[in-house]
Amino acid sequence: MFEHIHSNFPTFPMDVAKNYCSFETEHLGTTENYKLALHILSCINTPLFIYGAWCIIFKTPAKMVSLKNVLLWSHFFSALLDLSLSVFVVPYVLLPTFSMYALGF
User: I want to staple 79 with a disulfide (CB 3.0 to 4.6 A). Which of 43, 49, 53, 98 is the partner?
Assistant: First the structure.
């Protein structure tokens, strides 16, 4: 009945992937490009983390002196987590199976 409508559609999702996706030649398709992107982002983020720590240490208002240590520790561990994931671990996630492997430094 509706064969003329559905005749142009692929039967399986992998048919779509084979026809329209180029896994190894696109922007983040290779692991080397993915690592490079994360390393560039970490180079951009590091001065921002330092500036954020400077603002917490020297520009915290007098009313927030009791929270300065908490803010500084929270900022330090947040920056450490971000740098460790984007520089040292570099997780490469494989979403169809919810698995990953670390690309390392």
Answer: 49
